Amino acid sequence: MINVITELSKYVILTLMIVYTFHCFYMVWRQDEEEKRELLHQQLTMIFFIDFTAFLVIYLKSMDFRVILFYIEMMIFFAAIQILYRIIYQNASLLLLNNMCMLLSVGFIMLCRLSLPSATKQLLIVAAGSAVSLVIPVMIRKMKFLKDLTWAYAGIGIVLLAAVLVLASTSYGAKLSLMGIQPSEVIKITFVFFMASLLCTKVDFRKVVLATIVAVIHVGILVLSRDLGSSVIFFVTYLVLIYVATRNPSYLFLGLGGGCVGSVIAYHLFGHVRQRVSAWKDPMAVYQNEGYQIVQSLFAIGTGGWFGMGLCQGSPEKIPVVKNDFIFSAICEELGGIFAICLILVCTSFFLMIVTIALKIRNPFYKLIALGLGTEYAFQVFLTIGGATKFIPMTGVTLPLVSYGGSSVMCTILMLAIIQGLYILREDEDEQIETQRKETIERRGKRATPERKRNRQTP
């Protein structure tokens, strides 16, 4: 009976995920606010049934009562964050909030299936991060001086990265964390704020040089720490913001050329880089060593097929570091390739929403922040999924909101809170423009009334 429920559950979960993904894109084209609210409620219902079905299967397979307790705690958290956002921020983007809850749900499902203690720890970090994030939109709206802290952002980033380089111990071939915290995740935010603050006013060659020097220092320290994934994310974000601020394609091509040269140099200098490239080119040739992880990942993806093996039916634990770098492979194995494609589309919807917010914001400082954070999010998703599927060499970054990792999930939640603050700012700008338009019409009407009276009195 349990096997029947498990088999049916994967089709139920898949169907709900497909409908949810369709709603993410369908709502973009709809103008009726009442219909949008109804679709948002339907999305919440689908998240609830996906979680209920998945955790029922995990409990039936493990018969561990802690799974039920975790499920109750998780649902309390989701209910609290949804209610609080609706009370505190009536102009917040509920679709952005729903997508965050969906991605967190997928992560909690897979983590609970792989390691319940890890899932419990992740939930505590997510709850703490969400509590902090509730004040971020207010800070974005009220703290107008943020654009004046240009060199404070640069100094914080360089000092923290240098501390990691000097003091951190090596883990999986790279220096990543201090006292269990990965500073590079926090510095992703400060780096974007530095670039936006520097480039939000008139951009000349001097500012481009200053931005380049600071970016080179950030990326250089990360390369020396062998944190290759983060270094690539910082570099791509720098290129995007420089191009958007200057509208000069030559800077983009020069940056890409410099990045290619830097990659070749890093390949020859660091054995760690050569190992990852070797595993990417022919993982079976080095299966017993550096190729083992990627081969197991590909086996898991192939085993899952389109519809997956079903929760607790696969063997994702055979993939080293599956909770962190290769959770996408575990999703493919147990929930299926179609579910994984829908997950990618939800992440794409996330990115497109952030870009839309950036394009509609009139303040150049906030516009660059939105574009920078959106670029970091999208490229991190690309690196994680590309590495798991052997599309690109492994870079050792997590899938935002899904993978296990306290610093990563905490900072991603804070990034999304900043985006919510920018979305609310955009709504405020629209309301202000509409108010000014109405006032202008009223003033014109008042001026026109005496003129009409004089015209009537004139014989």
TrEMBL record:
It comes from Blautia obeum. The lineage of its organism: Bacteria, Bacillati, Bacillota, Clostridia, Lachnospirales. This is FtsW/RodA/SpoVE family cell cycle protein. It is a multi-pass membrane protein. Keywords: Cell shape, Membrane, Transmembrane, Transmembrane helix. GO terms for cellular component: cell division site; plasma membrane. Residues 432-459 are annotated as: Disordered. The chain crosses the membrane at residues 12-29, 41-60, 67-88, 94-116, 123-140, 152-174, 186-205, 211-244, 251-270, 338-361, 368-389, 401-425. One of its GO terms (biological process) is cell division. Signal peptide: none annotated.
